[in-house]
Write a structure and sequence with these properties.
Length: about 220
């Protein structure tokens, strides 16, 4: 196993955010190649985040750090630590991985690149959840059960459910009311104008804040993006 050199933590974090962005906002663990490339020569399409970070720190190659990368890196550990504190106050257990990541992120120097490369994914996950919670905080029901409706919505979260082979799509209308549906159609997972039938009005206990009022639709059809 390769032993990485020690670098300033802020430099590692800046490179981690840049590598994450470079790889399409994801963590790539193994080199990826273009399987449709013509000829015997393999065409490398994505390089593992850890390699991008390491090579950048060693010789400033492969990555171009932006101001956004620097801004995210400067606030990331504080954001993750704050989220951890809130969870502890709510009685929610935190993982040893998260505890170790925060501890390492507060150091001045580190060689734990394989640990710190996960900071961007956790940071953006927290940011997305906070934006989602803010967007739905004052949601009210829309329409009545069995009522047909046409509504313009903005998608604020979508998640694919492999066991059901479909998406659960969470949206909000112009009044920040949450409207949700299940669909197997990719075209029905984007923001736009939709037709649907109200199937359920419920105060969902799984969203935060708890008891968020959600209007469920079925027979959803995209009318216009």
């Amino acid at each position: 196993m390769k032993q990485y050199s020690t670098y300033p933590v802020i430099d590692i974090l800046e490179a981690a955010f840049c590598a994450y962005r470079t790889n399409g906002n994801t963590i790539v663990r193994e080199s990826m190649f273009d399987l449709e490339a013509v000829g015997e020569e393999k065409v490398l399409t994505k390089i593992p985040n850890v390699q991008l970070i390491d090579e950048h720190l060693e010789n400033k190659s492969l990555l171009k750090i932006t101001d956004d990368d620097r801004d995210y890196a400067s606030m990331a550990i504080q954001t993750i630590d704050h989220d951890r504190t809130i969870k502890l106050l709510r009685g929610v257990n935190t993982s040893e991985f998260a505890d170790n990541l925060i501890k390492e992120g507060k150091e001045e120097q580190s060689n734990k690149i394989k640990l710190l490369l996960w900071v961007p994914e956790i940071f953006f996950s927290i940011s997305e959840r906070e934006q989602f919670e803010q967007a739905i905080a004052n949601s009210n029901f829309v329409g009545k059960i069995g009522e047909k409706m046409t509504v313009n919505v903005e998608v604020i979260r979508k998640k694919y459910l492999p066991k059901l082979s479909c998406w659960v799509v969470t949206t909000k209308n112009k009044d920040n009311n949450v409207i949700q549906w299940f669909t197997s159609k990719d075209e029905c997972t984007v923001s736009g104008k939709y037709y649907g039938v109200v199937s359920k009005l419920e105060e969902n206990p799984y969203f935060s804040p708890q008891g968020t009022k959600i209007t469920m639709l079925n027979r959803v059809k995209l009318l216009d993006k």
